[in-house]
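note to self: dont lose this again. the chain is below, predicted strucutre after it. 355 aa total, dont forget to put it in the shared folder this time
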Amino acid sequence: MTKRYRVGVIGCGIGRSHIEEGYAAHPDKYEVAVLCDLDEARLNAVADEFNVKGRTRSSDELMAMADIDIIDICTPPAIHTKLILQALAAGKHVVCEKPLTGSLAELDEVVAAEKSAKGTLMPIYQYRYGDGVQQARRIIESGLAGKPYVGTAETLWKRDANYYDNPWRGKWATELGGTLMTHAIHLHDMLTYLMGPVERVFARTDTRVNNIEVEDCVSASLLMKNGALVSLTTTLGSQEEISRLRLAFENVTFESNHAAYSPGDGPWSILPANEEIGQKIDALLADMPPVGRRFTGQMEAFYHALEKGEPAPVRTSDARGSLELIAAIYHSSDTNSDVTLPITTGHPKYISWRP
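---
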């Protein structure tokens, strides 16, 4: 009989989506046993909705529960690192929302803790899961796509004063960044998931839409390590919410669906250069099984990795690429310069990308 993992979720905001899409969708694999939230009304509302008996307002109490296998961290970003280190020290498997840590220095602290930890850590990057993005990934990995040329990634969302009427949003100390950190981070991860790592960045950031500390508009130009040229655009002032990825390769052009919060879902536009390439793509995808979307797909992949004793399907190395890109964009905008990755010890943004 396969193991059914008992989960404790800290934070019932985005944590509710983790439960609904990720854990409740796999009742044979997971049991959400305990919820933790400082807001008692929200805690009880979500616990009642999903019939979760265990409830606490203390993360320390949850960490100490011997029968909890997985700690899922869905708190505001500023305390992610502390909770990750505490959960790993307690011998738990750990799932953590973005951003994984508040700096690259903190990320290296987490990586060091991972090496001796009993449990496995998985960052959340749910946009990697869905038929559209996984089909594109399969075509690219097969070599059929050929040489990568250019790409665009657009996160055009709407956030106004009501959204920022929250004590931790819009502030460097608690949100750790603006639209790069809280909105575009997942589409940018999807971009590098398909196009590979970034080599150089030139960018500008600005706060144009809301009366907040952090940025809500960004434009960036990337040189990828494979030579492709990519542009990133994000704003919180779009009257139509769109997440759109378009990638041009030698033999095929991909365009994601435009759903703001699920661009990994199919169908994607897959345009082959000619009929022969099209036939090869059709043959390659013919036996590909459906892929669970968003948290459903990621939690399923995590379960199989745990059962097989394999690394998590999304790893701290993936989080590093994501956070290095953010740090590079901030540094480029601050210094009006081209920034080379990776960002390591000694770089001005290694200890913190915050001003």
